[in-house]
Amino acid sequence: MTNPRDAADEPGRGVVTITDVANAAGVSASTVSYVITGKRTISPATRRRVEQTIRALGYRRRTGSPPPSPARAGVLAVAVPPHGDRHVGVEMEFFSAAAGAARGLGFDLLLVTDEEGTAGLHRVTSAALADAVIVLDAGDGDPRVPVLLASGRPAVLIGAPGRHHGLAALTLDFRPAGQACLNHLADLGHRSVVHLGPSPARPGHRLRYLEDFTEGLRTAAARRGVEALSQPCEPTAEDIARCLAELPPGSTALVVHDEAALPLVMATLQRRGLRVPEDVSVVAICSATVAEHQRIPPTAVVIPAREVGALAVDRAVRQLDGTPAAEAESVLPRFVPGETTGPAPVG
User: Fold this and answer.
1) Do 106 and 29 belong to one domain?
2) Is residue 340 part of a domain?
3) Domain total for the chain?
4) 312 part of a folded domain
5) Range of 27's domain?
6) Residue 269 located in a structural domain
7) pTM (predicted TM-score)
8) How remote is the C-alpha of 99 from its chain's centroid?
9) How far is CA 50 from CA 56, 156, 234, in A?
10) Which residues of 308-339 are buried (b: 16+ CB within 10 A; e: fewer)?
11) 40: how many CB neighbours lie within 10 A of its CB?
């Protein structure tokens, strides 16, 4: 059986066909077709193998040459990830900016929600309900990517999706933000920082963001001689109380990596008689909306959801107008000093 990666990298290779995918995956062409269309149930192992081959070869369904003035539905689909890990402030800002940008270009948005992750995209792409698709929180091995590749429709992946043939991507790079957080706290004299984040076992494509941020934080900590610990903490009053009660002795700064947890952390610290920032400094990772609604303006890593929403629409419409999908573009969260961080307490 052909190694899909070898086939994808073969010099001089022409347009990839459905037969190429079938041969490389070791299945029939009809099986590949069923995976693409979702019309029949395929075993999970076979589906994964076909999806991996589609990604590796960069197969895209060809629909022939378009007419000079192709009819458009005037709709951009936005695929929401199939998990319950909601960041309400981030998503509100993204959709508001995307809707405004789309209206300005003569498009409406169609929200595609699907717990299975792919059935909704199958319906939208096969029935031509949308001209292009924007995929939120795309990650490596994302099952939605093969559906988009096979559909041949313009698409924009948002998140940390790695490299995909022929699909535009906006990647959120959290490493510099992790470094900026640690350097800011080290400059204030903090020597022990605790990073409160979601559980790595929690489902969802945001895991890559968490890993990138943590890597940046720990790299800077090693360089500055600061102890930096990561502690999973769910956004419930009970779990936050447990996490704060179990902080290592000498911890003087917290990085809260969940905008839903931020108000609960601040309230719990107040109940325990700890002043912010006199007794403990707090850095939030959140949307601008959540930051703006805190009682104390926080020092924060602000997720650029509005910028990403407008950029995603722009990149999708550019493809519809004939501009080829660009290489992945990085978007950096902003570090914004506020009033929740101060000098480390003495003694």
Assistant:
1) no
2) no
3) 3
4) yes
5) 4-57
6) yes
7) 0.76
8) 19
9) 10, 22, 36
10) bbbbbbebbbbbbeeeebeebeeebbebbebe
11) 10
Residue 12, pLDDT above cutoff 50: no
Q: What CATH number is given to the structural domain containing 44? A: 1.10.260.40
Helix (H) or strand (E) holding 238: helix 237-245
User: Can you name the residues that pair with 225 across neighbouring β-strands?
Assistant: none
Nearest to 184 by CA among 215, 216, 209, 211: 216
Handedness of CA 199, 289, 221, 339 (dihedral sign): negative
Q: What is the pLDDT of residues 244-268, one digit of tens each?
A: 999 999 999 999 998 889 999 999 9
User: Is the confidence at residue 8, as pLDDT, over 50?
Assistant: no
User: Distance (Å, rounded) from C-alpha 75 to C-alpha 129?
Assistant: 7
Is 343 inside a domain boundary? no
pLDDT digits (tens, 9 = 90+) for 57-99: 767 665 443 333 356 788 999 988 765 555 678 889 999 999 9
Q: What gap in Å lies between CA 125 and CA 146, rounded to an integer?
A: 12
**Residue closest to 140 by CA, chosen among 156, 121, 157, 154:** 157
Supply the DSSP symbol for 166: T
